[in-house]
Task: inverse folding
């Protein structure tokens, strides 16, 4: 009886079978190709919708007044839609968080890739991953109810919700990005390079500084840019911790109002289709352009200077 | 020579110290949430609805809402993400097309969460007429999660040895048969790991659902995909910044934050353990 089963497929001619197989193969290939385009389609749609919803604002205000205007009073009559203090707030928060996050992130990466024993790095790596996965609203909440009173007492200032606090919390969020990408880059430096350096009499530290670090610089730059991109786009932390005043801060302990916080806090009160509504989408567009440029830059660096074996050094 | 050694020791201590700072910072946050939040946690807190204009009661509707968002993310982002990864890793040859697709994915990963929220509001809620609903919020979260799932699925597919594919092709299987019968089963646990990581990210995000799916308060549990819900992360934000009595509901805020943190960390730890187990197994 089993013999029958073997011959059964021959009822269909070989050619038809092959044709059928071929068309299934082709369909599958096309289907996967189309699905792979889904992400880029969505990215494109995001751009289109931001632009469509932001464009009507051009009737009320010129691009120059929008970007460089110093006053943001969206609910006044006539309303002011100048987002310069908001952009400055975003950039300051990002820059200050970078001052903390970049050195810490890179040094942790060096520690993990070069110095730590395997056992230690198996403990630290999950720590970094958990830092990355911490919900931003929890960090914002922590900054608001624990760090703010602490800072207030420590520096004897009226409010703890300010530029300084927000930068610290954002640093916590961007360290994991910087650290894990830098660590990958440091780790992929060929061993032969290090051995050559050791053979020339360099110490481990000298090898790290003069050989490993330069060889992985492109990867580290990518990590730093992506970390900063994460910091500038982070919403909940700056919404809860930055203080929310749309003015250019004069000291480290002044409140600021970065772009994501402005959008998130005002969207609820902006009537659909109003100037205010379009203005918030316009801020979203500006924010998108910032992160988009950061990402393109990071992609360019990692692509152009990618490590292709030892020959590329 | 001694001077150089000493210099190295000092610098290595600095590196060690900076790694330690991360651990300490994480530990401090976890400790504060645990020590102040655990008194709020009880069976009743987890299973009852908020009452007395959110100054008492539990967070059950929020847990349910977050679970509903996660279900939509799982249903949408998982298949699309895995299929994209299959194309990139199994079908595509390196070239301009693949570079463009990858650029798109990388950029999608870098889009700020609030921008996803704006897009969801304009596209899903208004143009597709879904309103503020589980579907709109879930779809917004799904798009945000997609790059994570594609990345981890690709890693899982890459970890499948080429000999598996060659053996299958050598037996006369077609490419699709090879992928379906050989590559996917071998990569399955890794793909699941990626799915968990993606879900944990979706569960913790607030900004994308603020104006697309989650609401301040709703007295009824959702009946369909097109109902609005409460969600854990948004609930924390609401209680901490706009509640009726912010100071008095502190313990509820800590409790909710602790539940969300435990949920996200639990998923992540699970994924990390699963992955390290898989890596060990693959090495042998």
Result:
């Amino acid at each position: 009886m089993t013999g029958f089963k073997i011959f059964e497929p021959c009822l269909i001619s070989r050619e038809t079978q092959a044709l059928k197989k071929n068309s299934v193969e082709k369909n599958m290939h096309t289907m996967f190709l189309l699905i792979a385009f889904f992400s880029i389609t969505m990215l494109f749609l995001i751009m289109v919708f931001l632009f469509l919803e932001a464009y009507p604002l051009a009737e009320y205000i010129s691009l120059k007044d929008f970007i460089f205007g110093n006053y943001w009073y969206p609910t006044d009559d006539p309303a002011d839609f100048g987002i310069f203090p908001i952009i400055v707030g975003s950039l300051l928060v990002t820059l200050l968080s970078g001052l903390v996050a970049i050195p810490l992130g890179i040094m942790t990466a060096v520690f993990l890739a070069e110095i730590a024993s395997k056992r230690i790095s198996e403990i630290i790596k999950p720590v970094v991953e958990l830092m990355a996965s911490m919900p931003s609203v929890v960090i914002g909440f922590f900054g608001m109810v624990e760090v703010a009173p602490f800072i207030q007492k420590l520096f004897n200032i009226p409010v703890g919700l300010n530029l300084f606090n927000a930068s610290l919390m954002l640093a916590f969020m961007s360290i994991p990005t910087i650290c894990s990408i830098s660590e990958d880059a440091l780790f992929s430096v060929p061993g032969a390079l290090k051995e050559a350096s050791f053979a020339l009499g360099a110490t481990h530290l000298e090898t790290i500084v003069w050989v490993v670090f330069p060889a992985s610089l492109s990867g580290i730059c990518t990590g730093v840019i992506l970390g900063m991109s994460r910091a500038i786009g982070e919403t909940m932390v700056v919404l809860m911790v930055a203080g929310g005043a749309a003015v250019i801060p004069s000291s480290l302990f002044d409140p600021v109002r970065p772009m994501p916080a402005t959008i998130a806090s005002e969207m609820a009160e902006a009537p659909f289709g109003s100037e205010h509504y379009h203005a918030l989408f316009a801020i979203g567009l500006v924010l998108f352009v910032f992160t988009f440029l950061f990402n393109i830059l990071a992609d360019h660096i990692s692509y152009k200077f990618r490590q292709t074996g030892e020959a590329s050094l | 020579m001694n001077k150089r050694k000493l210099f190295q020791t000092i610098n290595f201590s600095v590196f060690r110290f900076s790694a330690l700072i991360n651990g300490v910072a994480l530990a401090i946050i976890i400790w504060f949430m645990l020590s102040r939040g655990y008194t709020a946690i009880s069976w009743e807190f987890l299973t009852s609805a908020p009452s007395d204009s959110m100054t008492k009661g539990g967070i059950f509707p929020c847990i349910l809402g977050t679970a509903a968002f996660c279900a939509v993310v799982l249903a949408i982002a998982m298949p699309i993400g895995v299929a994209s990864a299959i194309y990139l890793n199994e079908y595509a040859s390196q070239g301009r097309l693949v570079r463009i697709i990858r650029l798109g994915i990388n950029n999608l990963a870098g889009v700020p969460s609030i921008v996803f929220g704006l897009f969801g509001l304009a596209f899903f809620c208004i143009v597709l007429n879904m309103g503020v609903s589980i579907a709109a919020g879930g779809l917004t979260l799904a798009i945000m999660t997609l790059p994570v799932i594609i990345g981890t699925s690709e890693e899982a597919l890459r970890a499948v040895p080429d000999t598996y594919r060659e053996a299958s092709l050598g037996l006369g299987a077609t490419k699709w048969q090879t992928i379906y019968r050989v590559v996917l089963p071998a990569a399955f646990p890794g793909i699941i790991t990626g799915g968990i990581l993606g879900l944990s990210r979706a569960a913790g995000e607030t900004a994308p659902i603020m104006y697309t799916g989650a609401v301040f308060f709703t007295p009824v549990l959702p009946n369909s995909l097109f109902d609005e819900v409460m969600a854990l992360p948004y609930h924390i934000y609401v209680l901490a910044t706009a509640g009726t009595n912010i100071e008095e509901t502190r313990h509820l805020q800590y409790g909710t934050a602790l539940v969300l943190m435990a949920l996200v960390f639990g998923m992540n730890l699970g994924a990390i353990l699963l992955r390290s187990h898989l890596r060990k197994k693959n090495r042998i």
Summary: DSSP finds 14 helices and two strands in chain A. Chain A touches chain B through 88 residues (CB under 8 Å). Residues 1-10 of chain A have pLDDT under 50 and may be disordered.
